[in-house]
Automatic annotation (TrEMBL):
It comes from the Bacteria. Pfam families: GerE (PF00196). InterPro entries: Sig_transdc_resp-reg_C-effctor (IPR016032), TPR-like_helical_dom_sf (IPR011990), Tscrpt_reg_LuxR_C (IPR000792), WH-like_DNA-bd_sf (IPR036388). This is LuxR C-terminal-related transcriptional regulator.
């Protein structure tokens, strides 16, 4: 039994929790002390995202715990309660464990720090998590050190302190790389780093965050979805990243499906597919998986409300919502209570999309949290001349092309001149492309253009694609408008 336990520990440390779990199940079929085996199996199952099985294993371990294992299992139970949002119960249980073992103490402090932060005492929670880091350093246990850093960066990010979270995360990853342990122990730290880099608009750095094969599938998928969201906001196709994320998840996973729905909604909205974005968000928040956090539900509601507003403002042959007011009320009714400063601003955004809050005030809040894309979006929605110019500069700096186009449309409608000079130029078009553009402006179909210019429909389709790409237009109507504005 002891040999099997050591092999399982080695596999778990090598970033192979599934293989470790298999080894543990074989050992559990034999005789011997089962508690330590179950304790490690609980950890492997939890890391792999099999939470129901992990909880059953933990309960069995609790019934067998004796001696030093009592404290370990108690902290594991506190960790479970914390993951379920039962912060007071988890903090009480973690605080009841008295030990001289720095490894166990670091685990207890990690749990307690998160609970304190999510009960509203962020400064106290971060101080407790720093103490967890110190205890983990003394113990020499890399697992507890990465747990403490992972929880600390998570708490900081949730509190809107993304710069500090990103700095600590990058420092920790550098240390793990030097020790040759980054692929094995860095999953949570990498994900927290990815979310902070996204929030800070440091999207190039986000692109460079590696996703090693040794990272558990659920964490790898979430990092890839974060990259997909950044790609969509830059006007890039995120489908490959979303597909890669789906492959990283082992089998059906309701939590991943809900998180994937958000990334798909962001992508659909960036492409102007507003109705699809609304429906994705509505369906997901109507029956969200239990493990979906309040913040994730909140952002799904916000995205759905924003897409619904875009849909009502869109021109052309756009399929409208049957009952936009009912959709708005439905999404507002599903808004969860916020957890921390960032969630509070997201909740304000939801009400602003429904015309019930001030976009100018929201932009200031995003500035305070150093989230430039969200601040630029809020200024775009406000429609004030200086706010639009400010938003335009931010969008150009971030490379946020869909937002830049939204700003441009808003500015043209309100006759507000923008300051950047990289406007699409008709001079980049070939003579034949100019002919095609002129006929587009008259509302001709590709078939009608082909007949008039004596070209094949396929050739006309290629010319139309080139015209849209060169002018940075999302559709034929926008290309025609650009031409009218510059002639």
């Amino acid at each position: 039994m002891r040999d099997a336990l050591e092999r399982a520990k080695a596999l778990r440390s090598a970033g192979r929790p599934a293989d470790a779990a298999l080894e543990l199940r074989k050992a559990l079929a034999g005789a011997g002390d089962r508690c330590e085996l179950l304790y490690l199996l609980w950890d492997c199952q939890f890391v792999m995202g099999d939470r129901a099985a992990a909880f059953e294993t933990l309960l069995e371990a609790k019934g067998l715990a004796a001696g030093p294992m009592v404290a370990r299992v108690a902290i594991a139970e506190a960790s479970w309660l914390m993951s379920q949002g039962e912060y007071r119960e988890a903090m009480t249980l973690a605080g009841s464990v008295v030990t001289d073992d720095d490894e166990i103490r670091a685990y207890a402090l990690s749990v307690r720090g998160v609970c304190e932060a999510f009960l509203g005492e962020v400064e106290r929670g971060t101080a407790t998590l720093e103490a967890a880091r110190t205890a983990a350093h003394r113990s020499g246990c890399v697992r507890e050190l990465t747990r403490a850093v992972g929880n600390l960066t998570y708490v900081l990010g949730s509190a809107g302190q993304h710069e500090r979270s990103a700095r600590i995360g990058k420092e920790a990853l550098t240390r793990l790389r030097i020790q040759g342990l980054a692929p094995t122990f860095s999953a949570v730290i990498r994900y927290n780093l990815a979310t902070s880099l996204f929030a800070l608009g440091r999207w190039q750095e986000l692109d460079e965050v590696e996703v090693p094969d040794t990272i558990p599938g659920n964490k790898a998928a979430r990092i890839l979805l974060c990259k997909a969201e950044a790609a969509a906001l830059r006007g890039r196709d995120p489908d490959d990243l979303i597909e890669e994320a789906a492959k990283a998840v082992d089998g059906p996973d309701a939590l991943f499906a809900a998180q994937c729905a958000y990334a798909k909604a962001v992508a659909a909205r960036a492409k102007g597919q507003y109705r699809a974005a609304v429906e994705l968000c509505r369906e997901t928040v109507a029956d969200p998986p239990e493990a979906l956090t309040r913040g994730e539900v909140l952002r799904l509601c916000v995205e759905g409300l924003g897409a619904a507003r875009d849909l009502q403002a869109a021109g052309g042959r756009v399929t409208r919502l049957d009952d936009p007011e009912a959709t708005e009320l439905e999404l507002l009714a599903r808004l969860p209570m916020p957890h921390g400063p960032e969630d509070e601003v997201w909740r304000r955004v939801a009400f602003a999309e429904a015309g019930r809050d001030s976009w100018a005030g929201i932009a200031v809040e995003w500035d305070r949290l150093k989230m430039p894309y969200q601040a630029a979006y809020a200024r775009t929605r406000s429609g004030e001349p200086e706010a639009l110019r400010h938003a335009d500069r931010a969008a150009q700096r971030l490379g946020a092309l869909p937002l830049a186009k939204m700003i441009d449309r808003q500015a043209r409608r309100l006759r507000i001149p923008l300051l950047h000079e990289d406007k699409p130029q008709l001079g980049t078009l070939t003579p034949r492309e100019r002919d095609v553009l002129e006929l587009l402006g008259w509302g001709r179909t590709n078939k009608e253009i082909a007949a008039e210019l004596v070209l094949s429909v396929r050739t006309v389709g290629l010319h139309v694609s080139h015209v849209l790409a060169k002018l940075g237009a999302s559709n034929r109507s926008e290309a025609a408008r650009i031409a009218r504005d510059q002639t």
